Amino acid sequence: MARDEAPAQRAEKKRSGLIGTLLKLPFTLIWIVFISMVCSVVIEWVGIYFGWFSQSGAEHARQTMMTEMGYLDSQFSQSLLVSSPVEFATMIVDTCYEWLFVKSGIAGWIEQGADAVGWAGTLKTYLQAAMFVTLMTLTRCVILVLTSPLFLMAALVGLIDGLVSRDLRRFGAGRESAFIYHHAKRMVTPIFLTGWLIYLSLPFSIHPNLFLLPCALLFGLMIAIATGSFKKYL
Q1: Cβ atoms 135, 96 nearer than 8 A
Q2: 21 vs 214 pLDDT, higher one
């Protein structure tokens, strides 16, 4: 009797674990965006303090934000998710700017203290840099949302390739490796989330394709390896 119940219990645990992972995914993504935003602001502040950037004050953050918005305007004129990607991105960024900086009074204080000196001028510079970095991070978040079909396509291609490899191994009497399967399975989610975290936290501007394409390729590869090394008989 215990032997009959064991497979059912394991299957129930797997279903519960999958449902729990899907439910936690939105909160995990929000947490990653928050951590990335904090890391980006801290890196920018440290760079201003130690003079890492050639631009003075918050100019580096402003130029980086403008470059990211330029990528969004020129490279994402079409999308599978929304009919007008640029208008969608502008609406998201403007809404966040309104609630985070205008209604809180930060933007108004920065404009009023444009000629401030001393500690007030320093505080204005750091707040202005934080504002630009936050808007840059939000712009990158919109880019990630618009490029999410790329990761879905990579996952689908990896799944199909893995299933084909599994069938070839199954009918060709290939060897199984639980070690490869479990390690590839564990790497799928970290690769996806770590790629988001690094991209959102970069203190300099980078073309989205230079970073997201390798991440999507590695993401699909891990899915293909995990699927292809799955046990031959259920």
Answers
A1: yes
A2: 214
